[in-house]
Amino acid sequence: MLTIQSKLMLKQECITKMSLVHLNKVKPACRRFEGKVAIVTASTNGIGFAIARRLAQEGACVVISSRREENVKRAVKQLCDENLKVSGLVCHVGNQEDRKRLLEEAISKFGGLHILVCSAGINPVPGQLILDCSEKVWDKTFDVNVKTTFLLIKESLPLLKKSKSSSIILISTMGGYTNNLGVYSVSKAALFALCRSIANHHTKDGVQINCIAPGLVKTNFAKFLSEDKERVTQILSRTPMNRLGLPEEIASVAAFLASEDASFLTGETITVSGGNPPSRL
Length: 281
Ligand SMILES: NC(=O)c1ccc[n+]([C@@H]2O[C@H](COP(=O)([O-])OP(=O)(O)OC[C@H]3O[C@@H](n4cnc5c(N)ncnc54)[C@H](OP(=O)(O)O)[C@@H]3O)[C@@H](O)[C@H]2O)c1
Hints:
Blueprint: H1 4-25, E1 37-40, H2 46-57, E2 61-66, H3 69-81, E3 86-90, H4 96-110, E4 115-118, H5 135-162, E5 166-171, H6 175-178, H7 182-202, E6 207-214, H8 223-226, H9 229-237, H10 247-258, E7 269-272
Parallel strand pairs: 1-2, 1-4, 2-3, 4-5, 5-6, 6-7
Helix pairs in contact: 1-9, 2-10, 5-7
Bound molecules: NADP nicotinamide-adenine-dinucleotide phosphate (NAP).
Residues 41-42, 44-48, 66-68, 71, 91-94, 119-122, 144, 171, 173, 214, 216-217, 219-222 line the site of NADP nicotinamide-adenine-dinucleotide phosphate (NAP).
């Protein structure tokens, strides 16, 4: 006998699988990024990988990266096998030398930079209440989620400005609004302010910056939530679309924000969460 929770999980699994089949079958028809060069951090898996793939499917040359060489090799091979123009290297976003090599790779392999997607993020203590957070965990979380994002943007800016019209996209989380994920939520909320602050000062340089706040998306990172039946049931009860998101559904919004279609948009955060929860009125 299936419990109500199990039935809900099965239904959600089924809808997610159907969407995945659909998304994998339907290749993007437009080529909005011909002649453009993109860097996507943390892009060998999950949301970052889906964004790198989508930008490349639409014609961009994409530099992909993450900490582990085997992941970089696997992701590069998969995308090259799909005839996409990508180059890959190891880059831990917290390492200054790695970030420098990332920018050098974009110049040496593809001749510049038009799109920067900052997708790296960590949540070292999932579920921990904010005031239980140690100073060490606070520093580590803010280092990766906020400081390295700020540093990479600062280091990329001269290249992005050279491209006349360029775009930066930050990957935050809906949890930045709901504040239910401890220090991770607090650090990701800082990205909303970083986005707005950079937009205020650098839009005049031809650089647009926007942020995405995904809801729960099926990836390794989110397993602590997506494999917890009780939490999923709670989340689905607040989600009008009654399912979890897919990395490809974040990628399509990132592609919109990086494109000319978003030509009058900067300093914004877009929540992509199947309607959960209404983050603003
Ligand atoms: N999944 C969700 O429900 C969800 C919701 C809201 C926001 N987000 C945000 O989305 C982003 C991506 O998460 P995801 O769910 O796609 O995770 P994922 O599927 O687990 O992929 C994480 C990727 O990041 C790389 N990575 C991790 N730490 C890194 C670092 N310090 N430097 C460079 N690369 C690093 C990993 O490769 P290596 O192991 O090789 O480094 C991997 O390629 C994160 O910023 C997360 O906060 C996710």
